[in-house]
Automatic annotation (TrEMBL), chain A:
GO terms for biological process: tetrahydrofolate metabolic process. This is Sarcosine oxidase subunit delta. It comes from Mesorhizobium plurifarium. The keyword Oxidoreductase applies. GO terms for molecular function: sarcosine oxidase activity. Gene3D superfamilies: Folate-binding superfamily (3.30.2270.10). Keywords: Oxidoreductase. It holds the Pfam family SoxD.
UniProtKB/TrEMBL annotation, chain B:
It comes from Mesorhizobium plurifarium. One of its GO terms (molecular function) is nucleotide binding. It is found in: Cytoplasm. This is Sarcosine oxidase subunit beta. Its main location: cytoplasm.
Length: 89, 417
């Protein structure tokens, strides 16, 4: 598995660190909503959008669309936040 | 069929041509008192304990492939009970005690070998942490010995003791730990459960649940038709979220891939199981001579049952740092299994919020050693609708209550457990 970083180009997996599913959004308040956000996961078997950190390169957070059944990556975009301004995302 | 020295001699005299299948490959009936989803070690152990300890013999085990084709056949076969946190300590010792009598209970040779498990420490702080864990074990009646470097040099002279960065200072040894033949564990439970009337149904994938007007689970829909059930238990490891989703549940679990490796066979080298404390590397030597080893999970969600190269490299580097001479040994095979990584690194054995559905999941990459204990407490839960006292903390709602059992102290980040 290799990831094509929008800033650095195609790099090997060892340069990246995984955070997880990009879908959960931090809720404003509410114990149940926080429990849901912190602990429960869809654990998708198929195409999933997820956050990766390119620590061995540009140190930007990336949003990677990947199939968990095949490891096939269909899209890599800068995640909102660090580095995103460089490409106007 | 009952196995003994006499049955072996009889079979030998007739040229080993008359061995019978050790368990029945059954066709599904319309209804069972209990249906267990998942024909791995945990599912089959659950069925056997239901039949042998709790008197429920109208039981089916449904397996989508062939029994033992999932993680039961993909692990590094280690058994141990060296856990430090309340909840884990007692449960894994219950499991260890069941390992010690399993072969007699099942009348099946599972090659349980108590060759010892040693966790190496590489700093004063790590020694103190291991000493504390060892003391916790001993207070709970579990064997543990803290070895210093002198004792270790006698036992494992080939270690890289004077590594400049990670000198090996000593280790925490559990002599009762060791290994077991993983496939034989599956076959043994299948053998004994089948003899008590449990139906083992292969190539039978669960595709949904049937439920009554109140939402209670009344059975399962499968690739071999509908099967009614008084109660349904699931023990499906990496597929836990997918099966639970069929009942409308979301679990505090992510599925990740863990790799394991076997080298070519070499002469006896490693006497027991050993783990590197400064990286993630654990190794034992099989009776065939291959070094069986592994390390971290790959670290990203996966259902693919295959790993990637960076982790393979990392695991081999860990091995080289600890035992430089294994650089001369060639890697023979590598494989991946899908782990149900829970949010605190600890399993869930509980009734689900759906009436009639029981969950046994979240084993992370430590499920093999738990096989007999898991089967026993899960059977207890299903039969009596009450958690066994050694599994009473493995509740599904512990995340909501703040009662996590986080042995590594990593928080809700499953790929770090």
């Amino acid at each position: 598995m290799r990831i094509v970083c929008p800033f650095c180009g195609e790099r090997e997996l060892g340069e990246f660190t995984y955070l997880g599913d990009a879908k959960p959004q931090r809720p404003a308040a509410g114990a149940d909503a926080v429990y849901d956000y912190v602990y429960l996961r869809d654990n998708v078997a198929g195409v999933m959008s997820e956050h990766w950190y390119h620590g061995g390169g540009c140190r930007a957070w990336l949003k990677v669309t990947r199939n968990t059944l095949t490891h096939e990556i269909s899209a890599v975009e800068p995640a909102a936040g660090a580095g995103a301004a460089k490409v106007g995302a | 069929m009952k196995y003994s020295i006499f049955s072996l001699a009889r079979a030998a005299l007739s040229g080993h041509k008359n061995w019978q299948p050790t368990w029945r490959d059954a066709a599904p009936k319309d209804r069972y008192d209990v249906v267990i989803i998942g024909g791995g070690g945990h599912g089959l152990a659950t069925a056997w304990f239901l039949a042998s300890e709790f008197g429920i013999r109208n039981v089916a085990v449904l397996e989508k492939g062939w029994i033992g084709s999932g993680n039961a056949g993909r692990n590094t076969t280690i058994i141990r009970s060296n856990y430090g946190l309340p909840g884990n300590t007692g449960f894994y010792e219950l499991s260890m005690k069941l390992w010690e009598r399993m072969e007699q209970d099942l009348n099946y040779n599972a090659m349980v070998s108590q060759r010892g498990v040693i966790n190496l420490y590489h700093s004063d702080a790590q020694r103190d942490a291991f000493a504390r864990r060892g003391n916790t074990m001993r207070i709970n009646g579990i064997d543990a010995e803290l070895l210093d470097q002198t004792a270790l040099r006698k036992m494992l002279p080939f270690l890289n003791f004077d590594n400049a960065r990670f000198p090996v200072q000593g280790g925490l040894l559990q002599r009762r730990g060791g290994t077991a033949r993983h496939d034989a564990v599956v076959w043994g439970y299948a053998h004994a459960a089948s003899a008590l009337g449990v139906d083992i149904i292969q190539n039978c994938e669960v595709t949904g649940f049937t439920r009554d007007a109140n939402g209670k689970v009344t059975g399962v829909e499968t690739s071999r038709g509908k099967i009614g059930a008084g109660k349904v238990g699931m023990a499906v490891a990496g597929s836990s979220s997918r099966v639970a989703a069929m009942a409308g549940l979301r679990l505090p679990i992510e599925s990740h891939v863990l790799q394991a490796f076997v080298s070519e066979a070499i002469k006896p080298l490693i006497p027991g199981v050993m783990t590197f404390g400064a990286g993630h590397f654990y190794v034992s030597q099989s009776d065939k001579g291959g070094l069986v080893f592994g390390g971290d999970i790959d670290g990203y969600n996966s259902y693919a049952q295959r790993g990637n190269l960076p982790v393979m490299e990392d695991v081999c580097e860990g091995g080289m740092a600890l035992i430089p001479m294994i650089g001369r040994v060639r890697l023979l095979r590598q494989w991946g299994g899908i782990m149900d990584m829970s949010m605190d690194g600890t399993p869930i054995i509980d009734k689900s919020p759906v009436d009639g559905l029981y969950i046994n999941a979240g084993w992370c990459y430590g499920g093999f050693k738990a096989t007999p204990g898991s089967g026993f407490v899960f059977a207890h839960l299903i039969a009596r609708d009450q958690s066994h006292k050694e599994a009473a903390r493995f509740r599904l709602d512990r995340f909501q209550r703040g009662a996590m059992i986080d042995e590594k102290g990593q928080g809700a980040q499953p790929n770090l457990h």
